[in-house]
Amino acid sequence: MHPIDWIIIGLYLTWVIYDGLKRSKGADGVEGYFLAGRSLPWWAVGLSVMATQMSAITLVGTTGQGYDDGMRFVQFYFGLPVAMIILSVTLVPFFYRAKVFTAYEYLERRFDAKTRTLAGLLFLVSRGLAVGVIISAPAVVLSIVLGWSLVFTALAIGVPTTLYTMFGGVQAVTWADVKQMVVIVGGVGAAVLILILSLPDGVGVGEALHVAGATGRLTTIDFSLDFTETYTFWSGVVGGLFLMLGYFGCDQSQVQRYLTAQSVDAGRRSLMMSAFWKIPLQALILLTGVLVFVFYLFHEPPMLFNAAHDSEIRAGARGTEFAELETRFHIAFEDRRDAADQMMAARRSGAAAAITDTRERFVDSQARVAEVRTGAVDLVREVSGDTAYTDVNYVFPTFITTQLPVGLVGLLIAAVLAAAMSSIAAELNALSATSVMDFYRRRFKPDATDRHYLFVSKVCTAFWGVFATGFALYAANLGSLIEVVNRVGSYFYGSLLGVFVLAIAVPRATANGAFWGLLAGMAVVGLVEATSEISFIWYNVVGALAVVAVGLILSFLTPSSVEAS
């Protein structure tokens, strides 16, 4: 990588750390450290909400998803706007009126301490592991693409984030998120511009996208009712609704964002901002992946985007087999490029028969390219033993480092780092808040000074940062862990959502009903996962309904005098 790109990355990391440390002056108490004194403007909170959900996995993985599968993934977020409206009317004012630090603190006021403890513990387990994966995923990709050591890459992501989060608290996290959103959107926008300018002379954007559309990559909506398929209209609207309600309503990393806003109305506006912009931004990232696919219609791509596996297999016992696949890939690419040119020429001519014929030829040629790539990926899985390996996560970083001009490479790498750091910082601050408020202060030292709790909060932030960075190095050797963590996230979110539904919407719900309903919900999801093939996005629906059903039954069987607060 060019020295200028290194300078850009270094300046960005220095800027983030310096600004975070500078903002530590506003974190002189526990409320300032975790909630910024409930003083932040709605637009900054809204950008922080968006940045928190946009990890490097999203930026790198979603572009790869767009390259490989097209725009269908955007359906995953169709339930988001409705979820934000529901939360703005329900949980946001509830949490504000309760004056809580954490979402789980409210559960004790409504039910009892054991329900609060269980919910807080579930959050610590699920997000404590997830934040390690959030570091690991980009660290593995960048270390291979850039030739960095895995340890150096993980430290480059984890250490700066831990430092500014530990000293600056949520104030530093929020304003860093604002800057990081600017870097992310600017980087993606620059990549899109370069991709458009890289089209061959005489080829328009519309023509190129028309060719990509022949492969189904511009298909946005799938109305099929297939519960095993993750990306459909119905899974997004129904399963996605429950997922987003659970994530934004019950996950401390999100709840903490809008609790920092100046008022209930400001908290609502921050959620509406995310609801309004999330789907277009996600669509832009997916479109970037589609444009990378278009780029590689005219410029031969590597057969494998993971250069490390490419070199390993080429030099190994199955190098001859790999070379044969490369020869087939080159032939298939040349045929696909010719077919794309003919398809665009036919479209310009307007001849219906020629359009149909050339389209069929292009689709067939793309299928052959995909077949060879699948063979290469299968070869990697056989040689490495990693049955969960996928090559798509390396598509965008490889494009960045091999095709973009000097300076823009540094900007895009900084954008990937920004996406990782924004999510990590939010998770670290939320993990610290739950550790201190729901466990340390509640269970061990309830009468300490504010200064003492502030010190412990910084220690907890540092602990979770060290844990996450260390776990990232371990997670790098577990190829299927990302999928596992995604499934576990849905496993928890639905069940936690069910508890909050009982707390807010069912005045007769009892503490025992909520506690045992939560355990029952997770057990039911585990049973569904073990005995069916339905997509994990539906676990959120199953978990929430199971908790509510069991909680209602137990509440009516064991009535209590507990009333909603």
Q: What is the number of E strands?
A: 0
CATH architectural arrangement of the largest domain: Up-down Bundle
Strand content: under 5%
Assign the structural class, choosing from mainly alpha, mainly beta, alpha/beta, alpha+beta, or little secondary structure: mainly alpha
Inertia-based shape: globular
Protein model, in words:
- The chain has 565 residues and is an all-alpha fold.
- It has two domains: 37-296 and 400-557, Up-down Bundle (Sodium/glucose cotransporter), CATH 1.20.1730.10; 307-390.
- Helices cover 78% and strands 0% of the residues.
- The protein is built from 22 helices and no strands.
- It is globular.
- 53% of the residues are buried.
List keywords for this structure.
565 residues, mainly alpha, Sodium/glucose cotransporter, 2 domains, disordered C terminus
Topology:
Elements: H1 3-22, H2 30-35, H3 42-53, H4 56-69, H5 80-89, H6 91-98, H7 103-110, H8 113-146, H9 150-197, H10 205-213, H11 233-250, H12 252-259, H13 264-298, H14 307-314, H15 319-349, H16 352-384, H17 395-403, H18 408-444, H19 450-475, H20 481-505, H21 511-531, H22 539-557
Helix pairs in contact: 1-9, 1-18, 3-9, 3-12, 3-13, 3-18, 4-13, 4-18, 5-11, 5-13, 7-8, 8-9, 8-18, 8-19, 8-20, 8-21, 9-13, 9-18, 9-19, 10-13, 10-15, 11-12, 11-20, 11-22, 12-18, 15-16, 18-19, 20-21, 20-22, 21-22
